[in-house]
Amino acid sequence: MLRYIAIRRNNTVKSKLHPRASVILCSHHNHFFRRSTHSTASLSTAKFTMLSLPSTPPPKSKILVFGAGNFGSCLADHLGNSDHEVFMWSREARFVEYFNKHHRNPDYLKDHEFSANIRVVGPEIPSKAMMKQMDVLLFAIPTQGVRETLIKLQYSFDRANLPLMIFVNKGIETGTHALTLEIIADTCGSEIARAATFISGPSFATEIVRRQPTSVSVASLTESQAKKASEIFHQPWFRCYTGSDPIGLELAGALKNVYAIATGLADGLGFENNTRAGLITRGLAEMTRIGTAYGASPLTFLGLAGVGDLFLTCSSPTSRNYTVGYRLGKGEPLEDIIKTLGSVAEGVTTVKGLKKIIDEMQVSAPLANGIYALLYEGKDLHEGIQELMCRPPSRELDLPEKAGEPAKRLMQKLGLDT
């Protein structure tokens, strides 16, 4: 019996596809799709629409999303369309009023009408009474603001009945070079950090709101929490795969932004496909080496949060970090790019914390070091490329012999020292 049926709607742009329609049924976990491929189809307009709910729908949750930017609002929309009751916090009064009146985001995804199951709250920090009613707290704010936000919220947590806490930011804190897992431990304590869950993977907001099939990694040190988060987010068009390496997931999500700057830079300079493919592949090798030295599993970097997100971010002009690199390659000053970008490019700040990690672990990372030198040490672009390409031949794949000290220290902080 079909429990899920979805239609891919096609309109507007014509293509040269044969005018016959095909039907594809996918039965994994009793989820089924119907997809039509008429001649008027455009992949850019493909959209999966739920026509019927499961006969036994999963429990619905009350979810509070911190962050009303591009990614926060797209995830709020996804959760609202999944029939959860969603509250989205914004620090701007004009945003709160506009969204609740029009159900549109005035700053991001402006053409999209958001789910009616979303209500925006703010600009004041949500009260303890409201927080106590929530089943899930979803943090979609830039990494550099996580510590400040958690400090404000920590006294509102009901520690006897903690909500599921999910983090989707990607970056390394400057100054402390801490991962979000460590920031949570510092501000909220080891118990909350051990239960925290992280989501990452190739997931552009513009495609999520159009229900383009998307797959992500969900990781936590507490397996049951990762499973809960996966069940809340999982839909036929939004697949979730669980894991137990949040450190690797965080590092992969943060580091890929740095390599996206490198590939954008190469494209901006006029280099072509060979160069981009080489940069993506060597970036994967480098981030795996850094992650393994830190104490993450090298397998994590072969998953959605690693090579999946790396490929997406390094190959799409809609990537903010790629755009920064591309404009640098065209000769624009970094300061002007940041002022006019319109949203946060995490790679620009992440590389600061990454540089400290690389130096501390003494791991080979020529690409990351090169991006840091270009952004913060005034390195001449063409001189940097010359130095990078004129290095002597080296072994293609290698992992550090001594690995894991940063992760061991973090595990001790979390009370998980073995």
TrEMBL record:
Its EC number is 1.1.1.8. It holds the Pfam family NAD_Gly3P_dh_N. GO terms for biological process: carbohydrate metabolic process; glycerol-3-phosphate catabolic process. One of its GO terms (molecular function) is NAD binding. One of its GO terms (cellular component) is cytosol. It catalyses: sn-glycerol 3-phosphate + NAD(+) = dihydroxyacetone phosphate + NADH + H(+). It is an enzyme of class 1 (oxidoreductase). Residues 62-224 form the Glycerol-3-phosphate dehydrogenase NAD-dependent N-terminal domain. InterPro entries: 6-PGluconate_DH-like_C_sf (IPR008927), 6PGD_dom2 (IPR013328), G3P_DH_NAD-dep (IPR006168), G3P_DH_NAD-dep_C (IPR006109), G3P_DH_NAD-dep_N (IPR011128), NAD(P)-bd_dom_sf (IPR036291). Residues 245-385 form the Glycerol-3-phosphate dehydrogenase NAD-dependent C-terminal domain. Belongs to the NAD-dependent glycerol-3-phosphate dehydrogenase family. This is Glycerol-3-phosphate dehydrogenase [NAD(+)]. It comes from Suillus discolor.
